[in-house]
Amino acid sequence: MSSSICGDIDAQPHHVVLFPFMSKGHIIPILHLTRLLLHRRLAVTIFTTQANHAFLSESLNDTSASILDLPFSHNAPDIPAGIESTEKLPSISLFHSFANATKVMQTDFEQALQTLPHVSFMVSDGFLWWTLESASKFNIPRLVFNGMSYYSLSISRAVANDRLLFGAELDDELITVTPFPWIRVTRNDFEPPFTEPEPKGLKFEFTMKAITATKNSYGIIFNSFNELEPLFVDFFNRKYIPKAWSVGPLCLAEPPKVRNEAHNNYKPIWVQWLDKKLEQGNSVLYIAFGSQTQISPAQLKEIAIGLEESKVNFLWVIRKSESEISDDKFEERVKDRGILVREWVDQREILMHESVQGFLSQCGWNSVLESICAGVPILAWPMMAEQPLNARMVVEEIVGLRVETCNGSVRGFVKWEGLEKMVKELMEEEKGKEVRKKSKEVAQMAKKTMEEAGSSKCTLDLLVDEICGKKT
């Protein structure tokens, strides 16, 4: 590529700007991508806001990456002042208002870009649509970071393009996806604006801005790998623009934590608890529904009863806002085989722990990938966003089980009896052994793709080479 884009390739190291959306689920994979780019001898500057700085800094304190803070003085009337990440929103219903408000950072972002050494390319989150305008002003190629699977994005687009959701009478009526006739979805697998025949309003406008900016960008980076979903990678690159690049699973770029046995007191209590279960020869079910999911008190009560009745060992990470289970004797009764954690945890460290043999998950894409890489099978319980599609992928295309709702609906209520049944099936029965065996095989496949000559490693090398005219 010409020197007008990347400058003199024999001069300073090529410089990359990264800009994650202000949400931990979006920030973490970008932090992993940072390590891969630094490993290729690129200089990296990451943009964030003051309230998110410490989280990024702590993760990258052993690297040469630079972190620049932008002021985020939004004027969204429904979002309290001082909120700079989606985890702090009073309700997830404010998500689109928050995402829309990020545009107030554009002027400061562009001023900061002018102070940096020459930027070879930019990677910004798909939700930060306005960064394309900034990139274009300074002739910087913009790559869109996409936090979804090819499967969920391909199916969403196919369903929208063919208007498949508007022929069904019922929200849970099965609909065949035309390009993938073996896949059947329901209207309940999707959220507005996909479910609206004539969409309008903030959600639709924001979605269209993000889609349009993506189409006009240099390319899309997917946190996935070709071997995991080859049909959907091929479909996406045949049908849509811009070109998609598979560079994941990015979580494998982060070296696993090594805890020193001599300093056991420095281990978090949950790691010590897992170590104890391993010594006892007990397998553990890990339970987490993500930092954005809002679960009703009635549903929390059913989860607690189901776990208690299942008699399995479990580690349950629970949001502080949901931390009071209505039965205050629950923790006392299960204390020998269950622990509730009410703080942020290193999920990958938990999944990599030898004692953990199952994961009850909402199927956010990061969680799916971390589980795949750890070789831990998923018991899928999707809650929001594209999670129902991820759950279908896990169960139907990869390997995993799914909770049973009391009315069979994708978004139905789960009674404790149904949860107990599926937890036992995953942790104790023959079906669980089968999915565990397959999970270990998929984990090996994931590991190989990031190694020398692996497909994702080669793809990122090719991408850097294409944009920077630089052999890596």
Automatic annotation (TrEMBL):
One MF annotation (Gene Ontology) recorded for this entry: UDP-glucosyltransferase activity
Pfam family, one: UDPGT
InterPro entries referenced in this protein's UniProt entry, alphabetically: Tudor, UDP_glucos_trans, UDP_glycos_trans_CS
SUPFAM superfamilies assigned to the protein according to its UniProt record, in alphabetical order: UDP-Glycosyltransferase/glycogen phosphorylase
CDD domains listed in its UniProt record: GT1_Gtf-like
Signal peptide positions (record): none
Residues covered by the Tudor domain: 244-310
E.C. number(s) listed in UniProt: 2.4.1.-
Keywords recorded for this protein, A-Z: Glycosyltransferase, Transferase
Family, similarity comment: Belongs to the UDP-glycosyltransferase family.
Protein name: Glycosyltransferase
Source organism (scientific name): Quercus lobata
Gene name in the database record: LOC115949973
